[in-house]
């Protein structure tokens, strides 16, 4: 038996493909199912079952894709309403994989579940917990068993799949959701999509096309939003005016629910050869209208003499000098729990979840410096501010990780993720 973790970096999400004796089980798949098919092909296995630990609210499931491809049986938690061919196990029910079993255990208060992988003599081998940790009772009973969580959006904790629960790097591992909740309307849209069944990927990509510069310019004129997936430094140097930066080398899937309506028509600008990675990222996040991509990337746009924009990117040393000797505002775009552990003096925490509240008025002429942990989330926020009329925005390359190499943080009083300083921040001041 082999347990294959499948990491979807853009969502900070783990799913799993377990293979044994030419059969396979997939747990919590994302919409782009190529990785699971590749594992199954390599291990000469057929995907027979797809197990969901929740009706997910921050990404689109790939269970229907796998059902269409393999005829796999879909298993969803008790009480979850899913159209089509699916099965609602009851606690104690088992899904077989050769001589092994995956035992279903409900988490009634949350409407979610876990699966316990066991041998034929019922010895536990692993816990597949999706978006949840376990309650204290389960911890005591199963502390020695390898843990295979999904982590979920927004989680920044480091771990290795298969680590025993007792070694998991958390002080508080009570049963709880461990991804940052997305906006209610977006979560409801994704849950409805996962319940009714998303469209086949081929139905969406089949309508997409490669654009020339003139064709993309016409799309933009008609309201299509450009999503640029290039690295922060490349984006900052030259981009199509009005573009939203979602660099693939960050975790852009965590940003989409806060910045983008799922029904918005979008087009991709990327490094040549990475177009499908950007499209799959958007599909996994529930974006339904993907018009296409710019053939040849930004070189095509600039060669056609089209208008471009830029965001100045500065290194940590230049940022700290500016912050000390100028009146520029510093925005810390990290999550509230990261901010609570320390930031630079006078920085204001504006995590993506608080953007709408924080942005009180567009058009300020004040200079703004934005940093995140690595520089990816900050270029997204900087591009978003540019789109809304803030022309004097700078992005800090390397983010807080680079700043720490030069200056020790100011330790701030912890306010909690629901009480960020963003609510007090008026960008127009």
Question: What's the topology here?
Answer:
Blueprint: E1 2-8, E2 13-20, E3 23-27, H1 34-42, E4 46-51, H2 63-70, E5 73-75, E6 86-87, E7 94-97, E8 100-107, E9 112-118, E10 124-130, H3 136-142, E11 146-149, E12 163-164, H4 184-196, H5 201-205, E13 209-211, H6 213-221, E14 225-228, H7 232-237, E15 244-245, H8 256-259, E16 265-269, H9 275-284, E17 289-294, H10 298-303, E18 312-314, H11 316-325, E19 329-332, H12 336-340, E20 348-349, H13 355-358, E21 368-371, H14 376-387, E22 393-396, H15 399-404
Parallel strand pairs: 3-4, 4-5, 5-6, 10-11, 13-17, 14-15, 14-16, 16-17, 18-22, 19-20, 19-21, 21-22
Antiparallel strand pairs: 1-2, 2-3, 7-8, 8-9, 9-10, 11-12
Main CATH class of the largest domain: Alpha Beta
Largest sheet: 6 strands, mixed
Q: Please tally the β strands and state the result.
A: 22
Whole-number total of structural domains: 3
Low-confidence stretches: 171-178, 413-429
N-C termini distance? 60 Å
What is the CATH architecture descriptor of the largest domain? Answer: 4-Layer Sandwich
Specify the oligomeric state. Answer: single chain
Q: Major sheet: order of its strands?
A: 1-2-3-4-5-6
CATH topology name of the largest domain:
Metallo-beta-lactamase, Chain A
Roughly how much helix do the residues carry, as a percent range?
Answer: 25-40%
Molecular shape: globular
SS class: alpha/beta
Tell me what portion of residues adopts beta-strand conformation. 15-25%
Radius of gyration using CA atoms only: 23 Å
Calculate the mean pLDDT score and round it: 84
The CATH homologous superfamily of the largest domain: Ribonuclease Z/Hydroxyacylglutathione hydrolase-like
H/I helix tally: 15
